[in-house]
Amino acid sequence: MPLFRSNSPPRDTAPPPPAETNHKSGGFFSRRSDSPEHMNGYNGYNNTNGASSVRSGSTRSSGGFFSRRRSSSSDSVDLKHDPSIVAARQKVSDAEAAESAADRALNEARAAVRSAKEHVKILEQEALDEARRAKAKQAEAKNIKKSTGRLGRHG
Fold it and tell me: What are the start and end residues of every segment in region (Disordered) (predicted)?
């Protein structure tokens, strides 16, 4: 007894026509050309009621796995409003804005670093100048102290 029952009538499945043996198979990346199977409209797929589907009068060949599909202008208009396309464009726009903000922040950080380094250089120079003045002041105070050594004889 089968697990799943189907209420549809039994199908009449016809085997597909035999493939020609001289058919070139180019591999995964090759383009398919209009073979006799395509010219007759047979595409080898079965539809829901088991019969093989037939596209008559089809001359369009489908490309390989990486081939481009040329879309008509009506397809591109419809795709502009597709939610996934709109969301992808928004994500790209957000990423560009984030990158721009990051670039601005990086430039501001570099400017802040330059400013801090320059401030430290100025501070070091001021400290050196103050040290020189303090040394000179100390030497002058020593000279003045020597001159005070004779004071106080009368007192």
Answer: 1-84, 131-155
